[in-house]
Fold each of these.
Amino acid sequence: MGLEEKIPSGFLLTTVEKLAGYMRKNSLWPATFGLACCAIEMMAVGSAAKYDVARFGSEVFRASPRQADLMIVAGRVSNKMAPVLRQIYDQMSAPKWVLAMGACASSGGMFNNYAIVQGVDHVVPVDIYLPGCPPRPEMLLDAIIKLQEQINNTKLGSNRAQIIKEVELAAMNAKPTHEMKGLLA
Amino acid sequence: MTTFDPYAPSRDTTEGKVFSVTGGDWDALVQDIGATKEERVVVNMGPQHPSTHGVLRLVLELEGETITEARCGVGYLHTGIEKNMEYRNWTQGTTFVTRMDYLGPLHNETAYCLAVEKLLGITDDVPERASVIRVMMMELNRISSHMVALGTGALELGAISPMFFAFRERETVLEIFEMITGLRMNMAYIRPGGVQQDLPEGALTKIRDGVKLMRKNFKENATLLIGNSIWMKRTQGIGYLDLAGCTTLGITGPVLRSTGMPWDLRKVQPYCGYENYNFDVVTADTCDVYGRFLIRMNELEQSLRIIEQCVNKLEKLEGAPVMVADKKIAWPAQLALGGDGLGNSLDHIRQIMGTSMESLIHHFKLVTEGFHVPAGQVYVAIESPRGELGASVVSDGGTRPYRVHFREPSFNNLQATAAMSEGGMVADIIGAVASIDPVMGGVDR
Amino acid sequence: MTDGMFGAKGTGDTSGYGGLVRKASTAGSSERPYGSYFDDVADDLERAYPEFSDAIERVVVDRGEITLHIKREKLVEVALILRDKLKFEMCMGVNGVHYPEQTGRELHAVYPLLSMTKNQRIRLEVSVADGDAHIPSLVEVWAGNNWHERETFDMFGIIFDGHPGLTRILMPDDWEGHPQRKDYALGGIAVEYKGATTPPPSERRSYK
């Protein structure tokens, strides 16, 4: 990125991290990627006065991915739509986050068949998953707030490189879910 | 072998040069297009677009600002719901069907359940209270669907405030849905044989209050756009489609009624007891976007009238059953709220475990296997907010549907985009598509 | 491994042993009088179309609905007569059904028709064999069938001769296979839980 990549780990870097995290989390502009039923609940979050998301910093839903920070994948992604999804994600400029809203975006939902991508993380890297069919507007707000906390605490520069190494090592050594024995007995 | 770079500003194909806007200099792009000496430009309003009402791809051939050809690309939301239903029970079909046209989930469910009941032959055995509840829920759904149609339609044409007002009304309806069914959207409330469970305490009062509030608010919302000169200039004379066009394209719903034809399945081929309610069929005779907008606004008032009549009837039918009496079909849904959520009521459990062996057997067979539906084929149509929603159901005598196909109104109505917009300007196709009000979940299923 | 009664072994879970039993469904032909307005429709059609018995294979009246099974060569003629003389102005689309047990007539195309002037509904059904799935297109008669025929082609592989642009509409353009046929698998992946996986619906014991 810039200056923060070159600062050595220490007090200065943590101050820059805190500042950058605070700025980024409080002006997270979502990109409109509403596909199906979850999109209607997302519209309610954006437009209904009861669940107004602008008070959390998402002032506008930007249609152009180049001006957006957060892509809320709301709805089922079909095989025909997957390349479009990837292209929109690529067109967003860093820093960018992805929120998989609903059961269909997180894991394919109730549609375990030929037409639906079983989880949008097959196509784009997801930062936070939100279950529900469709999730209530309050649940979406909760997810956005949790994501904001996550953004607030992101490490930059050399701290980030170290965290990435640790997470990768843990993932390589982790046991796959279906091999975790002793829980069904 | 040439490598395909999707982000290059232009590339040569067999159809000519294709330009992509990737953030470079706009002047350079325009100069490049000018250099190709082509008068006509093909523009792709892709699946992700703020104004195309969902994942609809519009391929427009433009000459200046005029559209010479418009084609729709659909299928970006194809979910394979119809095939998925062949692997589930008849009752589980409701949960799938509800997610097709996600703005009018109860209409999908009703069409499917009416078709299954016709195959079972129990159409007359469905209790009256269940039918009245179905009508009331469908009319509430019509209101919430029209609110989204009006709000997003106005948003796409540039009027941002009506969207907030529309979603405020929608919240009133969704709160009523949540109180009665437990969910705001995609409720799977209407089951073959009746409805899932009876209305809770206080539901009727809440509905009455909601109707009063909505009536007042609808008057307020109408003043935003009706008579607004910008709105009228953008919508009058736009998206013209007359009766001959509508019949050959098989278009029904507000688009057909805007030509003056009072064709509403609730009046001409009533179902669920619609013949017992007083309401008018709203038409317009201008065949344009403004006429359809007025029709939707007026249908809201008619829906409120029907809801009031339903509430009066429900008060008189207090305590009546809401599921068909035949225990071999009725889903054992004496549901009650317990410590761990919604589930079978303790009375029911006491009965099936302690008292009646038959109830236990019925419960077991129904939940694991499902009921058998005699073989045959039916087509049942209802009036959804977008037009005629038809369920074509084929059964082979088993516990799972053999083939279910839905004739969705949005699928047909969207074919009219070309007829409505060719010869007009790009800004008008947005209005035309908004007035058709397609729901892509229904188009692609 | 436990040993249960009647020689049952293992966990004793016998769910799904019934399997997915599909019976061939051939609705028999109905006898006159058909009842309600169906007789009028049949009479009007016979009067307007003298080769009625040639084209119509059988008439089925079931659950308050009439279905005319038509030979595919006569489909366009009958459709034109139904639209112009009998005033069935609207066609509600095309629906495909795949009956793999009815060898020689596996693929059916169903056309529900609606007459607004007379407030009547009938249904036309055309059957073709799997290897020779061609049906004349009805886009010239009712323009709204355009996308419906494309969808039936996409999902079942029925080719509509005379269609202005028969391409896939719901699946991606380069998809192989026709999804809603009975011999096409539902697809899907196994669902992972902690300690076990559940196979997708089409692989489960109760659906095989």
Amino acid sequence: MKKYAKSHEWFDTESGYVGISGHAQEQLGDIVYVDLPTVGKEVKKGEMLASLESVKAAGDVYAPISCKVIAVNDKVSATPELVNQDAEGEGWLVKVEPTNPSEIDELLSEEEYKKMVEEA
Amino acid sequence: MWKIVKTTVGESEARMIEELLAAYSIPVIVQQTDLFVHPIFGSSAQCEVLVPEDRYEEAYNILQGEGSTVKYTPLYEDHVKLGAKIVEFAGYYMPLQYDGIVAEVERVRKEVGMFDVSHMGEFVCEGPDAVRFANYVVTNDFGSIDFGDIIYTAMCNENGGFVDDLLVYKIAPERIMFVVNASNIDKDFNHILKLSNGFDVKLTNVSDDTGLIAIQGPKTQEMLQPYTDLNLDEIGYYSFKEGSIFGVSGIISRTGYTGEDGFELYIPANQTTVAWRKLVEIGIKPTGLGARDVLRLEAGLLLYGNDMDDTITPLEASIPWAVKFEKGDFYGKEALLKQKEAGLKRKLRGITLETKLVPRHEMEVFKDGQKIGYVTSGTFSPTLGRPIAFVMIDANVKIGDTVQVLIRDKYVDAKIVKTPFYRGSVRSKK
């Protein structure tokens, strides 16, 4: 199941994939560069996990939960526009293992996230 | 229990709202939401302003009253209908992008695209002293150009700093027009009005009555020619004629802000939609401010508020050709002359990078471990496939030198290069 952070990242509890939301992708515009962490890196919730550069803006991607990076998506490094085309699917950024699984409950459901975006 | 009453770009606006609501004794929480920053002013964070739920309606109504100062151009509804992403820019709701910045930039470079630039300010200056007065206001030599010609210039304060950069149109012996940046309309008008003391001129701010559409790209002329009574071939670079296009009368000038050939149409505000819709009909695609900013930066053109402001002189901004000391007296001359004689300490330069990390406004620039300046404007250039930027740095640094830009936590090598970064189909003055 996909869960969302207020800072616009998603975490899929089944696959362990983390990416940015479709809304975030839209806000950033044409993405030209994706800077991914190294496999094995451990971060706490809210720490910087990756960064993106679009033509007009830079976006830091924060860890939606405390986790360890177990894989990165090489496809988005080679073709950053994949994040624009399919932010919540093929455009995932990293695969992680939660190090404090209780934090997952604090994330927003898809419905709650949508509501937050609409209200903003 | 707390509810978001407003989302702002940058903390300063949020703080202003906080102060405003404090005057009504409404408690406020300001929180930074994320770092998906403003697409044009890269460095500011997004903020949420929250108020207690039971005071929400009151706060909302106060802000509606205050917030209505943001203006709309005559084309606002058309932008929304055409699917534009809208942002607030220089006090106006403007289209940021339609199909995506990269696609829009490419279209202007290869074919044609059009921009709503109705937010720009226009002042008409009439009277026996119009030309002499304009020549005193601006740094470039307005006296020497012909009627029907246009000059790009700075106008400075008494310290030589930019009040604005602008175009001045020489329409007739007793009639000229200033075209200024939207964000500076009030400041500029007051500045010019103040200087007019002792000159026989009448100044009128016609900004709200004037629509402005820029059509840019190598195919502009062939696209527009069938729909105007003017022979566009007879309008040279930085010249204009009065005529009609799609039956709408106005000024048509061969000017722009993209590095491509093209025209700008100054037409009555209430007929702007007529012209715009005809342009859409003949297949010219709208282009947003995001692409406009990329195009102007690739073409090495300055943006007020980023690359220069009240504290930077045209000499420092690397447009010394727009300051003509020999033309006679003009406002700010003394300070500029003094700076020229003393030598420049800092200078605007262009840089390019080999990586894909993008330098952004206000990032620091280093050489040999010493801070030598900052980035004024930066973007990824889709045309060149690499990042480009303007930097305001130590004047001793030369073209070909390598400097470092601190991009978040990395010192990234950048090379000082000549500008423009890219030269498109733009013509040159005969």
